[in-house]
Amino acid sequence: MKRTLFICLAVLGISVLRPAVAEIFQQKVELYAGDIPNAIRTDNPGVVHDERFNDQFVIGISKPSLTAYLPEGKDKASSAVVICPGGGYFGVSAIKEGQEVAERFAENGIAAFVLHYRMPSPETMNNPDTGPLQDLQQALAVVKSRAEKWHINPDHIGVMGFSAGGHLAATAATHYQKPVLSSLTTELVTPDFQILVYPVISMQSGITHQGSRDLLLGNPALEARVDAFSNEKRVSGDTAPAYIVHANDDQAVVVDNALEYYNALRAHDVSVQMLLLQEGGHGFGMRHPVDWFDGVLQWVTARSN
């Protein structure tokens, strides 16, 4: 069956004020019980490196964390999304690409979980290129296994990522067939949808974000690993539906990443909606003059009905 394809083009506009519609319950969630598999050192939850621009950039994460933002007073099971903030696989932008996103979801009745995943490093993990993916797959498994407790629809749990976090989210959406941990099943780690905001998609020279590639795959990177983590090459007809947001003038992660992924999804008849912002550059998070997030909410809600 042919799936629906939408493309939205947007220019700068005025954000719409919105009332909160749900109270939020915030909770720290244990991601791993006991030692972290494949970890060499697990004692560093991260260091706040930069607090400018009303944000927190956290680096050096070798012990991952998951924080739940749950809407209270729901009379039916909600959708849920695991959020991966960006930071070039060097750190995470904890507020504008994490906390603020989760709060907006929860205010609108959608459960959200902010993941501070481990940074790929041979000093802290045995396999740096799969360490962050392991954490995201573990987070998906934890959320799915506790869906009833948290009043979540277990069949509508997705991933969302910004920049390098977008690469991680897209990796989860295209590398689910063989979970990193043998203790996890494909069903537990497969996202039901993906939301990617100015994402790094490809590891190919000329299009990739070189810093993200170097930290994830090493420099020089093996060609086989470059191809394996170029997610536009991993799309299939079973890949989860996607919502993509990117700015045309992004100089850090060029918009070709979004376009390549969009074209791959389209070629495999995967439902995809894309919002291209005329301006905005890179790293705007929840602070763009256009309320791009409103479209995300509508898309998630429509898919859950």
TrEMBL record:
Q: Which residues form the BD-FAE-like domain?
A: 68-264
Hey, what's the signal peptide range on this chain? Answer: 1-22
Q: Is Isomerase given among the entry's keywords?
A: no
**Keyword field:** Hydrolase, Signal
- List the InterPro entries: AB_hydrolase_fold, BD-FAE-like_dom, GDXG_lipolytic_enzyme
Molecular functions (GO terms): hydrolase activity
Key word Lyase present:
no
Q: What is this protein called?
A: Alpha/beta hydrolase
Q: Please report the organism this UniProt entry assigns to the protein.
A: Alteromonas gilva
Question: What are the leading ranks of the lineage?
Answer: Bacteria, Pseudomonadati, Pseudomonadota, Gammaproteobacteria, Alteromonadales
